[in-house]
Design goal:
Helices cover 34% and strands 19% of the residues. A ten-stranded mixed sheet has the order 1-2-3-4-7-8-9-10-11-12, with helices on one face. Strands 5-6 form a two-stranded antiparallel ribbon. Helix 1 packs antiparallel against helix 2 and helix 4 runs parallel beside helix 5. The longest helix has 15 residues. The structure holds iron/sulfur cluster (SF4).
């Protein structure tokens, strides 16, 4: 919902302040999918608002469900689509949020990267993905967020930061910073800016190789920001925030899963004990890369080298909602 537009409209009608507060509370509650169902408002106002403003800036187009996740294609006001995912980890519900329509970074292991960038999402479109899930789940609600959907969050910086303020605000979505993770492909100046914000939001970094040449092949952005620059920015981040950084590492057969890769990883980590490797099994994307057949040897090698790691549990493969599988074509 465009809060400012609705507030201004209510003001133009000379309605008391409490009406705006009531509507905002209703909107963030996840209880209502339109103004018409807000039975605590006068009927004429409900009808009027319903005719003038959509409650959500995103509309469900296609919803897929598996045992552990749901994936929705959401239509935007200009006819473009994004995908958003809900993961059920038993004790908590996590939403995977998109920040762009497509992505300009073209990582070879990622379906979204093959779409190119159509545009950045607005603040409302980012926030409304969460409200969409809350409406679906009511009275349950999304408790954790990962910004790992479509797009590079740090390339939609201004809208991301404004959306995070709304997400964080006790009067709005009230999701605590420690329950939010942002994943970046490594936009070095923004890592520095993020560190300087000094929030408690978690940072994940798509590393995938500590070999400059291999990383460049997998992630074209690595040509712009070298591993040395990235390491410097991440060291600055951990020094400034004293927070752990998850280094995401998709295992790809014979490309980044050899003993030499562990050696390079150890060098990259150096003495920074706040770096933690997160092993992600490669999810197949059409025409894509081959998942590693050396995962066991690789994690044994990490263990031996004393590199801290976890293996991410992959959810949602059966509905193509897992890591790197989000894509939209025009037939949604
Ligand atoms: S992995 Fe992330 S940064 Fe890379 S192309 Fe996909 S969405 Fe973009």
């Amino acid at each position: 919902m465009d809060i400012i537009a609705v507030k201004n409209y209510l003001k133009s009608l000379n309605l008391p302040d409490f009406r705006a507060k009531q509507i905002i509370k209703n909107y963030f509650s996840g209880h209502y999918s339109d103004f018409a169902s807000m039975s605590d408002l006068p009927l004429a106002l409900r009808t009027d608002l319903d005719n003038k403003y959509p409650l959500l800036s995103v509309t469900e187009s296609n919803l897929l469900k598996s045992t552990d996740s749901q994936k929705v294609a959401l239509k935007l006001h200009d006819g473009l689509y994004i995908e958003s995912v809900l993961m059920d980890y038993g004790d908590w519900l996590t939403a995977c949020i998109s920040t762009q329509v497509g992505c300009p970074l073209g990582c070879t292991f990622c379906a979204t990267g093959k779409m190119g960038l159509k545009r950045n999402l607005t603040i409302e479109e980012i926030v409304d993905q969460i409200i969409y899930w809350n409406i679906k789940l009511f009275p349950k609600y999304v408790g954790r967020l990962v910004f790992m959907g479509m797009g590079e969050p740090f390339l939609n910086w201004d809208n991301l930061i404004e959306a995070l303020k709304i997400i964080n605000d006790k009067n709005y979505l009230n999701i605590g910073s420690r329950k939010i993770s942002i994943s970046s492909a490594g936009i070095v100046p923004k890592i520095i800016e993020f560190a300087n914000l000094n929030t408690e939001i978690n940072l994940a970094l798509s590393l995938h190789s500590a070999d400059q040449k291999v990383r460049q092949q997998l992630m074209p952005i690595a040509k712009q920001y070298s591993l040395a620059e990235l390491k410097k920015a991440l060291d600055f981040y951990t020094h400034k925030t004293n927070r752990q950084v998850m280094l995401e590492y998709i295992l790809i057969d014979n490309q980044n899963d050899q003993p030499e890769d562990i050696k390079l990883l150890k060098e990259f980590i150096g003495n920074n004990f706040l770096f933690h490797i997160n092993i992600i099994p490669l999810n197949p994307v059409k025409g894509g890369l081959i998942p590693s057949t050396h995962q066991k040897e690789f994690v044994d090698g990490l263990d031996k080298a004393g590199i801290p790691f976890t293996i991410r549990r992959s959810v949602g493969r059966s509905i193509n909602s897992a890591c790197g599988q989000l894509i939209i074509n025009n037939n949604q």
